[in-house]
Amino acid sequence: MFEEVSSQFTFAEKEKQTLAFWRENDIFEKSMEMYKDAPPFVFLEGPPFANAPPGVHHVLARIMKDAVCRYKTMTGHYVHRKAGWDTHGLPVEYQVEKQLNITNKAELEAYGVQNFIEKCKENVFQYEQDWREMTERIGFWVNLNEAYITLSNDYIESVWWVLRQAWDKKLLYQGHKVQPYCYRCGTTLASHEVALGYQEVADPSIFVRFPLKNRERTYLLVWTTTPWTLPSNVAVAVGEEDDYVAVEDNGKTLILAKECLKSLFGDEFPQIVENYKGSDLLNWDYEPLFDSGQHTEKSHYIVSGDFVTTTEGSGLVHIAPAFGQDDYDIGQKHNLPFVQLVGGDGKFVPEVKDVWCGEYVKDADPMIIENLDGRGLLFKATEYTHQYPFCWRCDNPLLYYARESWFIRTTAIRDQMQQHNQEINWYPEHIKDGRFGNWLENNIDWGLSRERYWGTPLPVWICDDCGHQHCVGSIAELKELGRDVPDDIELHRPYVDDVVLNCDKCSGTMHRIQDVIDCWFDSGCAHTAQWHYPFENKELFERAYPADFISEAIDQTRGWFYSLLATGTLLYDKPAYKNCLCLELILASDGQKMSKSRGNTVDPWTILDNQGADAMRWYMFTGSPPWAQRTFQLEGIDEALKKFMGTLQNVYSFFVMYANLEQVDVLEDAPSISERATIDRWILSRLHTLINKVGDDMENYHLTNAPRAIEAFVEDLSNWYVRRSRDRFWGAEAGQDKQAAYATLYEVLVTVAKLAAPFIPFLADELYRNLVVSLDDDAPLSVHLAEFPTADDALIDGTLETDMTFTRDVISMGHAARNRSGIKTRQPLADITLGGLSESEKETINRLSSFVHDELNVKEIVFTEELDTFAQVTLKPNFKVLGPKYGKGVQAIAKALATADTMQLKAELETNGSLEIKASGETYILEESEIDVQTQNREGFFVEVDARKFVALSTELTHELVLEGMARELVNKIQNMRKDADFNVSDRISLCVATSSELVSEAFEVHREYILSETLTTEVVELPGKNAFSLDQKLNGEPAMLSVEQVRVI
RNA sequence: GGGCUUAUAGCUCAGAAGGUUAGAGCGCGCGCCUGAUAAGCGCGAGGUCCCUGGUUCGAUUCCAGGUAAGCCCA
Q: What gap in Å lies between CA A700 and CA A706, rounded to an integer?
């Protein structure tokens, strides 16, 4: 006996019971334990931040990971699932600053770095409990108790080790990086903060004449919107491929891009005296505008810049390496001097001898413009309105500003990274050579350092005396070199800042530089640092590198996907992962990005509490591919619930209900497959085709196609297999066919449970446990400990599947015709006529005729060749065949066929096997295979026509048919009354039919046996008993009084 | 400004080595069933396959250029 399936339940409630079962029986742990000697499948968890509650996009990522891991487990792999937490970084610092009302570094230092760091530690785990609960509730199996945490000493030590490897390979170096910088807060801003503060402002827009050396009265016309950077100018860039001109203007010769003439001079074009390509101008020298000090490097000449545009400005771009990344890169490339005339306070440094020395740069703009004008170098000064970033905290404009920074020379390993990228399977594929490939191609050195507090400290110490630098690679080394390092040293600021080392070059004192590192580097070391490698867990690490599978959102292309690859390449010269599933963003139902300020976010908990985790999961798997952007529709979850889960649940409860009622032992005496009914063999063939499909899709990370196929299968199972087999499950005599039906449905349900287990782990497990575990003490306790099904190809009968599809198509047309006729299905009809079928299609229908008879309730199936009696027939060329053969002629043939006498041509085709047609002067002989016979609806029949066949109903009713229809009507009414009277389905009744209608009496007489057996009537009485339930009925318009009453079984 | 992606029914999505009647589910309408009831089933109406050019006998599909949306970068 199976456990009764109650109809009073909610999926959400049942899921909680399943969760408890998993917990109490350590199913997750068992699923790893049982495969600990099996081939590993390495999953690497991208660590989330727990300083904000999880949202739906986190659910998406987690269930994708979960489905893959569950599938791999069921296919016999050891899938270790270590969780991780990301903890360091600016977002945390800002949250804490906000909380403490700190607005700049000075206030922070006053508050105390140690206090601040402690607050950060609290902050990062603020929502850990939420994360834990959500993770468990959605059924994401991951071990949170052994999670790696990027703030732990062990983790940091491993990261230090990684940095030391880079250091030893001379890949860690100090340089400059241009960053958005707030002079008031004294800090650089991360890009997402910059994005917070864009405002529209009017800045000066000036065109300046740069006098050329060795060319009288000839000037470069240079555009800038930041006059304050001009004193730091060291070069001018042009586009090599762009066209430039020299023009005469008020006695001066100006050089500018040809395309910019119109915007600068309007319609009064000056005279062009010379044409150049950008490349012609390279290396021309010009006079510095200002005295920017002495440099050893050559400067103030024209260079090439691929970022130069001619759509605005003059096509000549002023280069000041301290104030723009492009400028800085050009400076590096051409070895230009690095001129930095602005201090960290945003003011000109004392070395600037002009009047604006000590002025805040933006205030100096007018003075500089005035100066240039006074010297006759200003061509034009206007205003320029554009989006410019402001500090989101203090609202001051940000300056792009080169700061000293530490870098990893990733450009040195770019080739290897690109090569390793080729070895990674990307889903979707285009990421490889698209977004990720492009990113690698344009790789620049990784700006690693942050002038902040909460992060992995950069372990570089510098000697106060001799400037010697050393990178520490472990705690042991720190203790060895350091003076009085506490035994339990914590590797965070400010604790490590207090550690001073002895310089081994000069015996001076070494202090750590103040920077911490980019938190992306932390998580990028996860493959190594999660094991505290190489200090511990050597074997574990070696077994787990590279990872087989990672999955995160697409925005990690330049984040985690990159940082893993970079560190993996740097350390081991191997890709860090083999398969990467990129997830797209989830938009709110209004098509907008989900954000708290818009108020369009969805709280996963409302879904989990109402519809449940399986429904949410199923919607996310099947709604759209994970790499396609999706709008999150709550209705979609209801649909998943009703459409898929409801259907599966119904088939399951149908099975359990009747298996219990009929006391069938599904494990005994299952007839061999060849002895089962056609429909059994059909559904089993479908099942094994499905097993292959799901396996293939899962191996290829098509996490959408697999469950969609399962859904289509369950639809067929419910709406065709069960619907057409229903009466085999009840009422029927015990015997081989009944046994076959039960065995088949049982096998199908158990297999579906296993196939669906990675996607709907809760419902799948419930089905499995009730269907399998309850009968078999030796069976694994849970579906998640069971083996994933493998297909038996011998059970796949492709012909049967296509035949069934075809038959169902014909039946569907029959339904349409019946619908149109208005005769209800209960009324049997004499025959249907099918036309336009090929010989093999007729055979198919004959083989599967019982389906047509039963479903359409017709006595006979008739085939006809006379299409035009029922449908309008046209002939069309088979374009696919004739197109390549006759080319242009095919259109003429089509025209000729359309205008010719169709029936005559068709007769010709039938007698000769070919036809002759004249089209635009030529005669064509067309074979049968080159012609499509098409049918169209003709009014006035109960006929359903598709492109090439039709189904016609015979609507004439004989007296026999009327009687039979009436008998069915009687059964129907009696059944309804049984239900209304609340009888049990197995109750026997006594029946009274009192009628003045001859038709009803006759039908009852003729079909007495049928009616009695259908309604479980054991006695027919002349007068109803006093407890009988009676109703006056109209049976197809005929009056009758029906009474039913339960019969006591003695 | 650059790179990548997407655009098919009211909504969510399939699909087509280029072939002349483009599919599903939901929603909507009509009907059926009630011995699967969080029901279920059938049928129907909904489409300039984003636009413009090109290639081709034939383009929603291929190519080019746009437009719109999204992400990343500058």
A: 10
